[in-house]
Amino acid sequence: MAKWTIFKQGVLEELPLQLGVFPFGVIYGIMAIESGLSPLQSFFLSSIIFGGASQILFVQLVSSATPVSIIISSVAAINSRHFLYGISMMEFLKHLSLSWRLLLAYLLTDEAYAVSIRKFVGETSNQFLHYHLLGTGLTLFITWQISTLTGIMIGENLPQFLDLQFIIPLTFIAIVVPMINSISIFCAALSSGISALIFSNLDLNFWIIISAIVGLIIGTITSRFDKK
Amino acid sequence: MMMWTIIILCGLITFITRFIPLSGIMPNELSPLIKKTLKYIPIVVLMPMIINSLSIYNGMELFLLENSKLYAALIAVVVAIIFKNVFATIFLGMLSFILMSNFLYI
Prior knowledge:
A: mainly alpha; B: 4 helices
């Protein structure tokens, strides 16, 4: 298959997912403005970070006056899943030139990965597979920028009485719940949540780090109960 | 200016985590322990954020009964389990929060 045919296939396979991505981008744009970021900062966050969960987390932490070190380490922690994506795509992409790998690493997000890895695993012998990821990634990038811009424009004109901050925990619920697919992940979630309650009065938002460590420990301990 | 610096640092961190596996410096197979730990990380970071936004505990007492955010969050959890859809979860969670806090005065 020629490379641009594969590119087009990536674009077309990514399109249906935009129904979910677009509203998410709009919500991010609204929240960014609500949290006090300038319209320019809100907009460029979408291309500088380019990751929905990280951006919403960023906005939440900035609006609660969190120390910079905790903002950066939390964003890094959330991104650790992209590391796993990269590892599972490594064998298909590592032969590419540096500029291709830089570009594709930038475009590697949840939704692009989900669609392209299916293609990669199904057609291992094709030498133009990376054009598929280029197609899914670029489609997502364009939708994300347009939806963010839409959210920023809506956010600037919203009435003040709506308590929109509540959208942030709801977004996190939407991300976390489908990830809980084993006993140990459930225990990790539960214990980190309880720790957040117990340690919520600690200075400098240290409860974030402590709760995460408690969850990691409990998750690792209980992993022996997971079905193999 | 400070804000732009934080934004750019977070962008760099994000890019680096995406690029390291493709950079060629990694071994071909990660140890199973590291892989498993990486799976827990997004959850143990986001879960405390969720709990902390629900105003359940103020350091003195628990607010479990008259807490519309808590009820709306539970509804959102159910929606997320059934539909596995980000927008439906946010929309129905927000709708139930607005309805409960404005009409049931919870």
